Amino acid sequence: MRRGIIALIPLVGLSAAFIVNQSCATKSALEEVDKELEAPKKNIEEAKNNLKESRGLLSEARRLLENAKQKLTEREKAKEEAPPQVVETAKEEAPAPEKEYGEVTVGWCDTLWDISARIYGNSLYWPSIYNLNREKIGSDPWILTQGWVLKYKTELTDEEKKEAVKEALEWDLKFKDRPRSPKCPPLK
Asked: What is the CA angle 136-141-145, rounded to 5?
């Protein structure tokens, strides 16, 4: 029996060495797998962060849209409650048909909002003036040159008014960080 046990000792030693080698190899393989999983984990974290940011931007866009809708509704209610008397008076005083288009000269530090408020009594109708003069004004309605003669429709239909207000609100959302009025130097 003693010889049998002595004969097994080298085999047990080899088995132990084999097990140690196998566990080291397994540990190395696991470390490699962990390293390979790090990049996808980082990608997943970045995707989660991007999703959070996108949701935040979407919420902000929805909030801006709701504010714009609310402002439009308030303006339409105010308009319904108190229709512009200037238009009614003009119709009563001048039964003869009016000219379809008029002209206005851009003054010092004028904006389309100012001109629209003077002509139509509502600064949100400025896109109707801009669209008629787009070739002269260019792609930026914020930049006008003193002395320009701009064309405008003397009467806007209800549909044209609604379209102008809608377009004005779209411009406001598109360029929300830009001031509506220019910074004009003082006159000397």
From this structure: 55
- Are 60 and 105 contained in the same domain? no
Model pLDDT for residues 28-42, shown as the tens digit of each residue: 777 777 777 777 777
Q: By the 8 A CB rule, do 132 and 143 touch?
A: no
Which DSSP string do the residues of 101-136 spell out, in sequence order? EEEEE--TT--HHHHHHHHHS-GGGHHHHHHHTHHH
* In a domain? residue 79: no
Q: Are 126 and 115 in contact (CB under 8 A)?
A: yes
Structure-token match 């006159």, residue found: 187
Domain span at residue 15 reads 1-70
**Which pair of structure tokens corresponds to residue 153?**
């429709």
> How many CB atoms neighbour CB 123 within 10 A?
16
What is the CA 114 to chain-centroid distance, rounded? 25
pLDDT tens digits, one per residue of 68-114: 778 778 777 777 766 545 444 444 554 545 579 999 999 888 889 98
Alpha helix stretches (DSSP H) within the chain: 2-81, 85-93, 112-120, 126-132, 134-137, 158-174
How sure is the predictor about 25, in pLDDT bands with cuts at 50, 70 and 90?
low
Indicate if 115 and 167 belong to the same structural domain.
yes
